[in-house]
Amino acid sequence: MRKLASAKERDAPRSARQPLERSRTRLGFYWANHWQYYLLLLLPLLYFIVFRYGPIAGNLLAFRKIVPGGSLLGQKWVGLHYFKLFMLDPNFWHVFRNTWTLSLLHLLIAFPLTLIFALLVNEFGRKLRSLIQLVSSFPNFVSVVIVVGMMKELLSPSGGIVNGWLEQLGIAPIFFMNEPGWFRTLFIGSDIWQYTGWNAIIYLAALSTVDPHLYEAAEMDGAGRLSQTWHVTLPQIMPTVSVVFILSLGQLLNVGYEKVLLMYTPSNSQTSDIIDTYIYRIGLESNNYSYATAIGLVAGLASLALVLGTNALVRRLTGHSLY
Amino acid sequence: MSYRNSQGYKLFRLFNIALMAVTMTAIAFPFLHLLALSFSDSAAVVGGRVTLWPIGWDAGAYARVLSHPSVASGFVNALAQTVIGTVVGVLMLTICAYPLSKPIKGRKLIMRLIMATMFFGGGLIPTYTVVKGLGMIDTIWAIVIPFCIMPYYLMIMISFFRAFPEGLEESAMIDGLGPIMILLRIVLPLSRAVIATMGLFLAVYYWNNWFNALIYLNSTNKYPIMLIARHIVAGADLASEQAYGATGRDSLSGASLKAAVIMVTMLPIAALIPFAQRHFNQGVMLGAVKG
Question: What number is the ipTM of this complex?
Answer without folding.
Answer: 0.87
